[in-house]
Amino acid sequence: MLSIQNLEIVYEDVILVSKGVSIEVPDGRIVALLGGNGAGKTSTLRAVTGLLGIHRGRISGGRVELDGTDITTHSPEAVVGAGVSQVMEGRRIFVDFTVEENLRVGAHTQPRGSIPDSLDRVYTMFPILAERRRTGAGYLSGGEQQMLAIGRALMAQPRYLLLDEPSLGLAPRIVSQIRDLIVQINESGTGVLLVEQNAAMALSIAHHGYVMENGRIVMDAPAETLRNDSDIREFYLGLSKEGAGVSYRDIKHYKRRKRWLS
Ligand SMILES: Nc1ncnc2c1ncn2[C@@H]1O[C@H](COP(=O)(O)OP(=O)(O)OP(=O)(O)O)[C@@H](O)[C@H]1O
Ligand SMILES: [Mg+2]
Questions:
Q1: How far away, in angstroms, is 131 Cα from ligand 2 center?
Q2: Ligand 1 pocket check: which of 18, 19, 43, 58 to mutate, most ligand atoms within 8 Å of Cβ?
Q3: Residue 59's CATH number
Q4: How many structural domains comprise the chain?
Q5: pLDDT tens profile 133-150
């Protein structure tokens, strides 16, 4: 179990962006973390993987545990070594490296002898990467780059994979490919924390979901419940008529007022 407990995050010592966030990712499950722009999703992932420091942020309260072991102050390498890998927002592959060089970078915490097997596994899962193994990563399409970013994270053989908006900017057909790949990765035993603004995609495969707003978890429920929640459907599944751009909490408030007025 990967467990985030009452996490508080500050940037530049003054900007409090996470105000007591708790999230659990049980072994082998897919957990969706939903929320609009600026909710604090990416910051939460950075906190888990030790990457807040390079963004002038830090954890100011709470802790992160992996199977009961405190990993809150682990370095990024130590977090990967402990079995937690992250695919960053915006893909962040090395465009001047070939596909295979990118994948090898992902295995830097692994014993050298294990790299051929890991490459085989990734190439089996992503045949397109095998075809392009000698191609400069900068020449890949957006969808291929996302696959490379995921493949690179898998090279560390993680028990938990954290994905930050893997569907961002991709065509629907590619999004559904990425979705199927996430299911396949999960079925091979990897726990997934899936950060998405595409709630329809995320909830279609998640076991459990959290909704985050303004640095707080405002909903925490089985994915099935979230799929059937009328407010979630309106605001995160794009079925809203009245409230584009309105937050989940605003619509709750608005509806209460509307009921009260009528
Ligand atoms: N390095 C930083 N310094 C200061 N503030 C930051 C920094 N990084 C993020 N923030 C702020 O923290 C808040 C949460 O940002 P974060 O990127 O975690 O949100 P998000 O939910 O991932 O949003 P999005 O969906 O747009 O990616 C925002 O208000 C953002 O402006
Ligand atoms: Mg983000």
A1: 31
A2: 43
A3: 3.40.50.300
A4: 1
A5: 999 999 999 999 999 999
Indicate which atom in ligand 1 lies nearest the CA of residue 41.
21
Place of tokens 């209460």: 256
Pairwise CA distance, residues 195 & 183, whole Å = 15
Distance 43 CA to ligand 1 centre (A): 6
Domain assignment present for 131: yes
Whether residue 256 lies inside any domain: the answer is: no
| Residue of 9, 33, 42 to mutate, ligand 1, most atoms within 8 A of C-beta | 42
- State the residue range of the domain holding 146: 2-228
* 54-84: pLDDT as tens digits: 999 999 999 999 999 999 999 999 999 999 9
For residues 48 and 2, the answer to whether their CB atoms sit within 8 Å is yes
Could you tell me the distance, in angstroms and rounded to a whole number, from the CA of residue 199 to the centre of ligand 2? 14
**Residue 259 belongs to some domain of the structure:** no
If you take atom 9 of ligand 1, which residue's CA is the nearest one?
A: 43
Quote the pLDDT of residue 242: 45
Residue 58 belongs to some domain of the structure: yes
User: What span, in angstroms and rounded, lies between the C-alpha atoms of 97 and 103?
Assistant: 10
- Helix, strand, coil: what percent of the chain each, to 5? 40, 25, 30
Best residue among 9, 11, 88 to mutate for probing ligand 1's pocket (most ligand atoms within 8 Å of CB) is 11
Q: Sheet harboring 15-25: ordered strands across?
A: 15-25, 2-11, 57-66, 69-70
Pick the residue with more confidence: 120 or 242? 120
